[in-house]
């Protein structure tokens, strides 16, 4: 498995992700990501740890104190390395699930 995320500070590799991640796109760590996040370099380790529960790209950017563009690239690399996975934007879920997810996002944003 190529851990391009671990070598990214040295400019190795470009994410193969073909689409742009929407701000509201949810990402979560895979089993592999949960096991290996401590082996990654900053900020990949923190991003993977924050994705232990599904988190929106925008919230991840805020928590990492990175620009949205940088966060999208970072997440793209983590997806390519199968350390996190993307889920449909919140609009693709039933109303109650959307409300629950939005409540979590707003609560976490308020905590920041």
From TrEMBL:
InterPro entries, alphabetized: DUF742
Identification of the protein by name: DUF742 domain-containing protein
